[in-house]
Design goal:
single chain; mainly alpha
Length: about 40
């Protein structure tokens, strides 16, 4: 599945992951911001 605001922090902690697929969450500004903050 794709990354959303709820599971992004768990993905961001993984050292082997170099990217993430942001699907429908990119259409919701608040969700997208949560994802960006998780990876920043």
């Amino acid at each position: 599945g794709s990354v959303d605001g709820k599971n992004a922090p768990a993905f961001a902690k993984e050292t082997l992951i170099q990217g993430a697929l942001v699907g429908g969450a990119s259409l919701i500004p608040e969700e997208f911001l949560k994802i960006v903050k998780s990876f920043s």
